[in-house]
């Protein structure tokens, strides 16, 4: 049982006990039964609100965790492409080429489109973190290594510099995320 739910139940019991003691004192003073019922109803409504807000908080955390798990699964199970790019970045062997008209390219190279499919994940992750859909610490735990490595990679930097000539804001979220994660490591 979560701490929040335990606290909500405890508050409910305290409110109920207060309601009973108030009700007893009201009856001793000769007040009407309707006043007692009214006071108890108010206390029960407050307890229900507290329990409901705690349950919403717990559900929100569960949904965020599920979202992060789904994001992780889609990133790591995107097929061999993400894994190949991660490996090329790790070994400093990332080579980006444009496709030829025939569609052929040297093996172990990646097209702009393929690299975009990889890097756009980091843009999205930062958007989700800024909107508090996911927590930045969790992002660092699950994706931090790959984000920092990709950002520091010379081929990635050259690629981003090249495409920013036409579109200056491309991968700003990725850049912001990488710098934020690097700052947290310093």
Could you please describe the fold and organization of this structure?
This protein is mostly helical. The chain has two domains: about 60 residues; about 110 residues, no CATH class. Helices cover about 75% and strands about 0% of the residues. Helix 1 packs antiparallel against helix 2 and helix 4 runs antiparallel to helix 5. The model has no long low-confidence stretch (mean pLDDT about 80).
Tally of separate helices: 7
Count of structural domains: 2
Are there runs of 5+ residues with pLDDT below 50, and where?
none
**Structure summary, number of beta strands:** 0
From the spread of the alpha carbons, the general shape counts as rod-shaped
What structural class should be given to the helix and strand makeup? mainly alpha
Order of helices and strands: HHHHHHH
- Kindly provide the radius of gyration, computed on alpha-carbon positions and rounded to a whole number of angstroms: 28 Å
Query: Mean of the pLDDT scores?
Result: 82
Percent of residues in β-strands: under 5%
Task: Summarize the biggest pleated sheet.
Answer: none
| Helix amount | over 70%
Instruction: Tell me the distance between the termini.
Output: 37 Å
Features:
2 domains; 76% helix; 7 helices
Task: Summarize this structure briefly.
The chain is mainly α. The chain has helices spanning 3-28, 33-76, 80-90, 112-130, 136-152, 154-164, 172-185.
């Amino acid at each position: 049982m979560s701490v929040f739910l335990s606290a909500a139940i405890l508050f409910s019991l305290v409110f109920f006990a207060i309601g009973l003691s108030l009700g007893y004192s009201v009856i001793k003073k000769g007040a009407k039964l309707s006043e007692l019922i009214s006071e108890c109803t108010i206390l029960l409504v407050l307890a229900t609100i507290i329990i409901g807000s705690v349950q919403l908080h717990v559900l929100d955390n569960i949904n965020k965790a599920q979202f992060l798990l789904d994001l992780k699964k889609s990133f790591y199970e995107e097929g061999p492409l993400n894994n190949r790019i991660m490996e090329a970045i790790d070994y400093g062997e990332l080579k980006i080429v444009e496709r030829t008209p025939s569609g052929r390219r040297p093996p172990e190279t990646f097209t702009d489109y393929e690299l975009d499919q990889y890097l756009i994940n980091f843009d999205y992750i930062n958007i989700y973190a800024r909107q508090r859909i996911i927590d930045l610490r969790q992002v660092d735990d699950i994706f931090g290594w790959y984000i920092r490595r990709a950002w520091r990679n010379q081929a990635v930097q050259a690629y981003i510099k090249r495409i920013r000539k036409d579109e200056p804001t491309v991968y700003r979220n990725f850049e912001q995320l990488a710098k934020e994660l690097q700052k947290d490591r310093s």
